[in-house]
Structure formats: C-alpha cells, structure tokens
Design goal:
Keywords: Isomerase, RNA-binding
Largest sheet: 9 strands, mixed
Protein name: Pseudouridine synthase
Organism: Diversispora eburnea
CATH topology of the largest domain: Pseudouridine synthase
Strand content: 25-35%
CATH architecture of the largest domain: 2-Layer Sandwich
CATH superfamily of the largest domain: Pseudouridine synthase
GO molecular function, one term: RNA binding
Oligomer: single chain
Helix content: 10-25%
Number of domains: 3
Distance between the termini: 50 Å
Low-confidence stretches: 1-8, 16-21, 212-224, 315-320
CATH class of the largest domain: Alpha Beta
InterPro entries: PsdUridine_synth_cat_dom_sf, PsdUridine_synth_RluA-like_CS, PsdUridine_synth_RluC/D, PsdUridine_synth_RsuA/RluA, RluA_PseudoU_synthase
Length: 346
C-alpha cells in the first residue's frame, strides 16, 4: 500500500475500513475458550495489530518506536520481527532504521496468547429490555485492551449469552470485582452518561485497607497513576465501616471517575488496599508505600519505580521465540493473589 496523503475525512474512512476488517478477522465464532487450573484461557490465535502513525512517532525509526512504546517485548524481538516482515509499514517490509512518516499504516502480526483469567462465571443479576446488571469477578477486564481481547467481559457475554451490542455504563479495573451495568443500546447509554455527569447516579465501593484511623474527604490533583499537581481534579469520600486491629473496612464514594482513583488516593493517604500489587508494594515504593506521593520531577526515580513494579507484577514467561507458530510470549498461570484486590463495587 502506498504511503497515505489523505485529508482528514478520507483518513477516517480508511481507518474505519481497517477496523471493520480487523473485526471480521477476529470473529468470536472462531474463538475457543477452555478451562484449566481454575482459570479461563483462550486458545492462541493469529492477530494483526493495525494503527496509523501517532504524532509522537513521526520522524522516529520503527525499531525505537516499538522499543519505547511497547515494552512487553525485547528490542531483539522487535529487530527480528521487522526483519521477518511481521512488523511492516504500509504493508511493505522495512528495516529497523526506517523512519515513520505522517499517516503511515503500522501493522504487527503475531500469534496471540492472551493472559488467563479466573474461571468464575459472570453472573447476570438483572435484565431488562435496555440494560443488564452483572457481578464481575476480579481479574476480568471489561473491554478489549492491551494484552486482553477475548478474555474480557464484553466478549465473554457475547460468546456465551449472545449479547451483540453492549455499552458499559460504569467501568471497573481488571482486578476489581462487583456490580457493572451495561446498556443494550446507545440511546440508553447516553442517557445514563448524562445522569452520571449531573451526579444523579453515584458509585460506591467497599475495600480493605492498611489503616487504624478514620479517613476524611480529600480533594487533590491526580494523574493517571500518581498524584500530580498538573493532573485532573478528582474527589473521593471515605468512611470507615469497621476495624480489626490491623486493617479497616472502608466505604469509598468517588465523585469523579479517574483511572485507579480510589487506589491512588488511598495510597497517597498512607492507607493502600491491603493486597494491591501496584500501590501496596513495599519493595517498589519503599517503607512508606508512596504516602504523600513521590518526586514527580525525578525521571530516574520514576523509571526505576515503573520497572520495579513491572517486574514484581509480571506473571508471564517472556518467550520471545519467533518460530513458525508462536511470535508472542506465553503466559504462565498467575498466582491466586494476582487475580484480585480487595476492592468491590456495590
């Protein structure tokens, strides 16, 4: 395919065509789930990632972009994948030093192995014409993202219950369990979103934290995963329910919906969720476990923290082999404590 030189409208049309083709190539009818060792697994399948060049990639070579943006594999893996034509630009074989240009189409073909999740059933608690209410087990992502595609709430419900169009009205982190409401049509989804925006509907969670004192209302800035003065404003209200001598059971009411909001706020206060592998990790954060935040201007410290947390919580075996069948890492079975945190939506 020749390099694109398209106006915005035409670019969107071609992007939609590729998305539709991608969906056809990954039809759920061909997906095979199987169960082993208390886990739900997906039989490996071929998959091709497709995306147009992002602004920050332009004028950079293809190898460095993959090395810096997708750190789940080694630089050596990407070098070999480029040389074998598994990674291409505009459907053409390139070299590791090829420079990415504006509107280039980047593709990466793999034999995909998804991480396993719990084998617990997704219970449908309530169903009407316009929406369903489910009890999401911990470890299952809501929608396809990153390493997960078919091992997700949306695809499992479609495969096992025939729900073709689902629109999550509230989202839970992968490790969080609890109530999720899904609309069966876009109109109701928009109506629900408006109610959420006007604070007509509120969410509550229960969690177990390291704490022996009551927690009060806080309001400070939050980045994605760290408290940051340049982040988006957010508020969470906490109320202690009980205390057992070392941990507390707490009701959490987030008034905004930022990524990992409850988990980050609790860590910042010095009361992280007890079994949170990201925010209650002494080895990664130190003895204070991130209380009061960390120096956000220390790039070296931030990188060391990210690398430490990644290594502590990575349960896959990095097998970067590039034989005829598998071109992606295989995942070992996660330990039980890697499948959940004590945070539940009620």
């Amino acid at each position: 395919m020749d390099k694109y030189n398209l106006d915005s409208k035409k670019h969107k049309q071609i992007t939609k065509q590729f998305i539709n083709k991608e969906e056809e190539e990954n039809n759920l009818e061909t997906v095979e789930f199987y169960f082993e060792n208390g886990l739900r697994k997906v039989k490996p399948y071929y998959y091709e990632y497709k995306t147009f060049a992002k602004g920050r990639w332009i004028k950079k070579n293809i190898l460095n972009v993959f090395r810096d943006e997708f750190r789940d594999r080694t630089k050596e893996y990407y070098e070999t994948a480029i040389e074998k034509g598994l990674i291409m630009i505009n459907n053409k074989i390139v070299t590791p030093s090829t420079i990415i240009q504006n509107q280039d189409l980047i593709t990466h073909k793999i034999h995909r192995h998804e991480p396993p999740i719990t084998d617990k059933k997704i219970k449908i608690l309530y169903q009407e014409n316009d929406f369903i209410v489910i009890d999401k087990p911990a470890s299952i992502p809501i929608h396809p993202s990153g390493r997960y595609r078919h091992n997700t709430v949306l695809h499992i419900l479609q495969k096992e219950h025939g729900f073709l169009n689902l629109f999550p009205l509230n989202r839970l982190d992968r490790l969080t369990s609890g109530i999720v409401i899904l609309s069966l049509n876009k109109k109701k989804a928009r109506e629900f979103e408006q109610l959420m925006t006007k604070h007509k509907i509120q969410k509550e969670y229960i969690c177990q934290i390291k704490c022996d004192q009551p927690i009060k209302l806080i309001s400070h800035k939050l980045g994605l995963n760290l408290v940051h003065p340049d982040g988006k404003s957010c508020i969470t209200i906490f109320k202690r329910i009980s205390y057992n001598g070392s941990t507390s059971l707490v009701k959490c009411k987030p008034l905004t919906g930022r990524t990992h909001q409850i988990r980050v706020h609790l860590q910042y206060l010095g009361h992280p969720i007890v079994n949170d592998p990201l925010y209650c990790n002494i080895k990664s954060w130190g003895p204070d476990i991130g209380k009061g935040g960390i120096d956000i201007n220390d790039d070296k410290k931030i990188n060391e923290l990210v690398n430490s947390i990644s290594s502590e919580n990575d349960f896959d075996n990095k097998i970067d082999n590039l034989n005829n069948e598998c071109t992606i890492s295989h995942f070992s079975d996660p330990k039980p404590n890697q499948l959940l945190i004590w945070l539940h939506a009620v």
